[in-house]
Amino acid sequence: MALHDEHFFTLLAVVPVPSTVEEYPWRACPRTRALPVQCDAEGLCVLESIVQWVVNLMEALGAPGVGIAILLETIFPPIPSELVLPLAGFTSTQGDLNAVAAFIWATAGSLVGAWLLYWLGAAVGARRLREIADKIPLTEATDVDKAILWFSRYGSFSVFTGRLIPGVRSLISIPAGVERMPLVRFTAWTLAGSAIWNALLIWLGVTLGANWHRVTDVMDSYSTVIYVIIAVILALALFFLLRRSYVRRHETPEQRAAREEKARETYKVYRELEKKRGKP
C-alpha cells in the first residue's frame, strides 16, 4: 500500500499557502487558536510540514504509520491528532488506506503513548514534569497544571473524559501516574476514551473529504457539547448525593436500623466471597 503521487499532490492542493491566518484560520494551531502561523526558513507553515510528514509516514508504513503518528502525538502534544486522524480518514476515501485498520492502529498508539506518560508521571512527579513542559515547543507548564486539576476534580473517570477534551487528552495520563491509579482501570478508561476520539476524527475525515482540514471548526462545537454533557452528569451526581444525604438525615430510627442491617448482610456476603477467592 502506498499513496500515489497524484493523491499526494491532491492532499497538498487543499492546503493553499495563505497570506494571513485570517484568510485560512485552520492554519492557526488547533490547540491554541490565537497563535500566528509559524514558518521555517523556506516559508513552509509548521502545520503544513506536519501534514507532509504524516503523508510520508502513511505512504511508507500504511495504517501502522497512523499508529506511530498518534503515539508521537500522545507523548509530544504539538503534533495534533486533529490533523493526523482526519487526514487518515480522507486518505481512506482515496482507496490507499483502510479506515478500520487506521482506527485500530491509532487506538493502539494512543494506549502505548498513554502508558509511557503514566509511567513518566509515576517516576518523575508533577513538579519536574512542569519544568519539562516549559521546554517543549507549543507546550507550557500550565498544560500539566490543567491535567492535574482535571484529575483532582473528577478522579479516575477523568481519564475517560479527559481523552475526549482537546488540550487535556494527552496529558491526563500524567496525574494518573502521579497518583498511582490502578493500571488495569487506567488502561480500560484510556482505551474507551481513545476509541471514541479516534473513531470520531477518522469519521470526520471521511465525511469532510477534501475539506478534512476544516475539522478544527467542527471540534470547537464538539468541545462545547462535551463540556455541557460533563456538567450535566456532575449536576445529576450532586443532586443524587444531596438527596441521599437529606433522606438519611430525616429517616426514622427504624429505617436507619433496617439500612444498617442490610449493610451488615451485604458485608457478610462480600467477606464470604473473599474467603472463597483465598483472600484473608
Structure description:
It is a single chain. The chain has 280 residues and is mostly helical. It has a domain at 44-210. 71% of the residues lie in helices and 0% in strands. It is built from twelve helices and no strands. The model is unreliable at 1-44 (pLDDT under 50).
Please state roughly what percent of the residues sit in beta strands, choosing from under 5%, 5-15%, 15-25%, 25-35%, 35-45% or over 45%: under 5%
How is the biggest beta sheet arranged? Answer: none
What is the H-and-E element order?
HHHHHHHHHHHH
Structural class: mainly alpha
Shape: elongated
| Tally of helical runs | 12
State the end-to-end CA separation: 56 Å
Helix content: over 70%
Mean residue pLDDT: 69
Segments where pLDDT lies below 50 for 5+ residues? 1-44
Radius of gyration: 23 Å
* Total beta strands: 0
What brief labels describe this structure?
about 280 residues, mainly alpha, about 70% helix, disordered N terminus
Offer a quick outline of the entry.
71% of the residues lie in helices and 0% in strands.
Topology (elements, then pairings):
Elements: H1 5-13, H2 46-61, H3 63-75, H4 81-93, H5 99-124, H6 126-135, H7 141-154, H8 157-162, H9 173-178, H10 183-208, H11 215-249, H12 253-276
Helix pairs in contact: 2-3, 2-4, 3-4, 3-5, 4-10, 5-10, 6-7
